[in-house]
Amino acid sequence: MAERRSTLRAVARIEVYDREGRAERVPLFVAGNVSPGGIFLITQTPYERGTTLKISFSLPGDDQPVQAVGSVVWSRNERSAPDRQPGMGVQFTEIRREDAERIRTFVSAQVEFE
């Protein structure tokens, strides 16, 4: 039986940065979608399940960066799912309440717009 998502998410192309000790501001990933509980990161080389990431990103139309810690909960590559975009699902384990609310507002606006 397929797992059902419990929260709405918005499709968005968002540059995601690593917060772990990098001086340069080079995007590490591009997000495919986002929800208050997590983010899908597009990548040809997904990390292993359980890997912890410290990331930051800005929502479209919002200059204030969201900072979060998350854990890879699933991943797929071209071999395991040739008809799907490769990447990994990251569940937020630490995120400020204000940041989660800003994501919720963004997602709600996208859903209403569609």
Explain this structure to me?
There is one protein chain. With 114 residues, the protein is mainly β. It has one domain (10-113): predicted glycosyltransferase like domains (Thrombin, subunit H, Beta Barrel). It contains one helix and six strands. It has a six-stranded antiparallel barrel with strand order 1-2-3-6-5-4. A hairpin with an 8-residue loop joins strand 4 and strand 5. The radius of gyration is 14 Å and the shape is globular.
Assign the CATH superfamily: predicted glycosyltransferase like domains
Q: Approximately what portion of the residues adopt beta-strand conformation?
A: 35-45%
For the CA atoms, what is the radius of gyration? 14 Å
Compute the number of strand runs. Answer: 6
Class by SSE composition: mainly beta
Number of helices: 1
What is the helix fraction of residues, given as a range?
A: 10-25%
Characterize the biggest β-sheet: 6 strands, antiparallel, barrel
CATH-derived architecture: Beta Barrel
Terminal CA distance reads 28 Å
Q: What string gives the helices and strands in order?
A: EEEEEEH
Name the average pLDDT. 84
Largest sheet: spatial strand order: 1-2-3-6-5-4
Q: Low-confidence segments, ≥5 residues, pLDDT <50?
A: 1-5
